[in-house]
Amino acid sequence: MAETxxxxxxxxxxxxxxxxxxxxxxxxSGHVRINARRIDAPAKPxxxxxxxxxxxxxxxxxxxxxxxxxRRGGYPEARLLFEDLTGGTAAQD
Length: 93
Prior knowledge:
Strand 2 (32-34) and strand 3 (37-38) form a beta hairpin. It is globular, with a radius of gyration of 12 Å. The protein has a five-stranded antiparallel beta sheet. Strands 1-4 form a two-stranded antiparallel sheet. The protein starts with a strand and ends in a 9-residue tail after the last strand. It is built from three helices and seven strands, in the order βααβββββαβ. It has a single domain (5-84), classed as Structural Genomics Hypothetical 15.5 Kd Protein In mrcA-pckA Intergenic Region, Chain A, CATH 3.10.290. Helix 1 crosses helix 2. By secondary structure, the chain is α+β, with helices and mostly antiparallel strands. The relative contact order is 0.22. The protein has helices at 7-13, 20-28, 75-78, and strands at 5-6, 32-34, 37-38, 45-46, 51-55, 60-65, 82-84.
């Protein structure tokens, strides 16, 4: 698997959004930043170490990409793809 992945696909694999279509809409609307830079292209690549700031309807999430996804699995699998920096809590086990 490549080290980079389309941001819309990654958001879907990480279970941030329910569909890739919603991910693309969120990105195209300017609600996603990669390393503090606003993006508007769903095909923009993300790689381990990138920090995503995502403005959702009820909250803003800050996620550090740890791995590219290989599939959309359950939440226990998805949370291995990122470290949640939103409230200073990390997804660790």
